Amino acid sequence: MVKIQCPKCRSKKVYLLGNKKRRCSKCQYEFTPHRLPLRLTRDQWKNILNWFLLEQSSQKISIRTSPERRRVMRALTIARRVLTKDVPETFSGTVEVDETYLGGQWKNKRKTIRDKGTKRGRGIKKQPVFGILCRNGTVWAEVVVDVGAKTLQPLISKKVTAGSIICSDTWKAYTGIASRGYVHRLVNHGEKQYSDGKGNHINGLEGFWGYLKRKLVSKGGIRREKLPLYLGEYVWRYDHRNENDNAKVKCIIKLLEHEV
User: Fold this and answer.
1) How far apart are CA 146 and CA 95, in angstroms?
2) Helix or strand or coil: residue 232?
3) How far is Cα 200 from Cα 97, in angstroms, rounded to an integer?
4) Contact between residue 182 and residue 93 where contact means Cβ atoms under 8 Å apart
5) Residue 145 parent element (H or E)
């Protein structure tokens, strides 16, 4: 059984009050105990999360902390799951929208697949992902079934406040965005146009795609069913990139407390 300890002085000598709170017998601090998943103590979670933020593998984290590897793997899955929920509900102002594809490099495919040839650009057999970036640097991304208008435009309507300025490329799925109550600005990548000189571009989101793909490549391959968790992780890391690790750990701990 995990013993409750005082969050202020870490003393384990606490007693129950009539209002369901606890009082520390050492510093007299009153608090409401919060449970954490997997019956791991707060210190165990902090140790795991500190190594997680350094992007260490579950095996290395297990060696450096007390829980066994299987338990660490479960802890990391839970952590990634709560991170996917810590995203802004809506975006407003000037936003960028774009889609990308995630999957293994062509040179690493089996020879039987490479012999059949490949399609480049939209339509290739990789996992499509759609993203929205607000000019304050906050991003949101989600795995989608396709990049057609019937899929992307409802997501835009759900995540972007009406009246906002939406910057996109000329992909046909974005045609008609203005009729949904947005100001639509286009950049034509096909003609090597990446900015119109008036602040209309999707360079911020392109930068996030590059960051995301570098991180996923460093993992050495991720099963498709696990991709939403890793996508959520790196969206969260990107959105909190200006915070120090202590602040990030505290944020994740709060998210975990609401998960129980």
Assistant:
1) 21
2) helix
3) 12
4) no
5) none
How big is the CA angle at 195 (ends 190 and 197), to the nearest 5 degrees?
140
Quick check: 47 pLDDT over 80? yes
Contacts of 43 (CB under 8 A, 6+ apart): none
Better pLDDT: 6 or 23: 23
Average pLDDT, the chain: 87
Distance, in Å, from the CA atom of 142 to the CA atom of 131, rounded to the nearest integer, reads 6
Alpha-carbon gap, residue 116 to 164, rounded angstroms: 44
- What's the pLDDT at 187? 87
Structural element, H or E, at residue 99: strand 94-102
Higher pLDDT, 118 or 68: 68
Are 22 and 14 in contact, with CB atoms under 8 Å apart? Answer: yes
Task: State the Cα–Cα distance between residues 252 and 40, nearest whole angstrom.
Answer: 14
Domains of the chain, first to last: 14-86+243-259 (no CATH), 94-221 (3.30.420.10)
Q: pTM value? A: 0.80
